[in-house]
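Need residues for this backbone.
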């Protein structure tokens, strides 16, 4: 695994001019004129060598190599080697995930409410938790964005793979610093190598997958409320939903949130995750 390289820029210190801009600092003006001293007289000094200097200019001081940042003061934490995401230990509370540090993958079709539920669950935990949305990361690409709605091709496939790797690295970085995370993605059961298997490679064997799968009528209704490239045609939604039905019988926990609001779904998700910690699913 690659470790993070480089260090953050040093913080700006008040009262110190930025290097290279010292000649713009305020000075009270040139020094008062001095009477000339004849050569050879006491107190005479040889004129300085080199090009003339502008008033207020001072030669730069000696350059020293910068020391590496102190981890405890900069947050620059080295990632451990290998797969840092192991199966989390059982929570200390009787209900829910409690204070456990864990990585979650929320799977579901378009319109299932993955992003909304994931963000609500992350926002309401008692411990630091991050939400990482695959669609948000995909749309970091501005010029050259390969929109799957314009046709699935090698470019859209490559950008999906790149986004998954980026999300996986971000998740491992958060977890290595003690922050839980929940990712959401429309992972298909009929593409195990680039879907669930890819997430397992990118994040680690301790990733806990949960499927969010409401009824077709619900996802069609929710999709109709979307706009932009997040909104799909009814045929596309029905096709995705039909493929997602393949998760039944997979052994993964499935939540049918057809009649749940966001808060209830997030609470059910937390209970399901607590059971997954106690008895991890085989996947």
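Answer:
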């Amino acid at each position: 695994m690659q470790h993070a390289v480089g260090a953050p820029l040093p913080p700006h210190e008040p009262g110190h001019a930025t290097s290279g801009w010292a000649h713009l600092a305020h000075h009270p003006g040139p020094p008062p004129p001095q009477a000339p001293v004849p050569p050879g007289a006491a107190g005479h000094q040889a004129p300085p060598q080199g090009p003339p200097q502008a008033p207020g200019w001072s030669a730069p001081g000696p350059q020293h190599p910068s020391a590496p940042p102190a981890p405890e003061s900069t947050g620059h934490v080295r990632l451990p080697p290998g797969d840092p995401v192991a199966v989390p230990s059982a929570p200390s509370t009787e209900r829910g995930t409690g204070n456990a540090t864990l990585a979650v993958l929320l799977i579901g079709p378009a319109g299932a409410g993955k992003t909304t539920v994931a963000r609500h669950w992350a926002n309401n935990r008692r411990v630091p938790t991050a939400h990482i949305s695959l669609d948000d990361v995909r749309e970091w690409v501005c010029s050259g964005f390969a929109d799957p709605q314009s046709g699935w091709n090698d470019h859209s496939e490559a950008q999906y793979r790149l986004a998954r790797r980026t999300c996986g690295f971000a998740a491992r970085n958060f977890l290595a610093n003690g922050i839980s995370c929940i990712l959401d993605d429309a992972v298909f059961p009929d593409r195990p190598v680039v879907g669930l298997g890819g997430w397992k490679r990118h994040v680690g064997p301790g990733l806990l997958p949960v499927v969010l799968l409401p009824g077709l009528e619900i996802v069609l209704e929710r999709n109709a409320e979307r706009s932009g490239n997040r909104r799909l045609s009814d045929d596309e939604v029905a096709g995705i939903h039909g493929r997602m039905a393949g998760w039944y019988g997979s052994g993964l926990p499935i939540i049918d949130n057809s009649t749940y609001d966001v808060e209830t779904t997030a609470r059910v998700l937390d209970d399901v995750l607590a059971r997954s910690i106690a008895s991890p699913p085989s996947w």
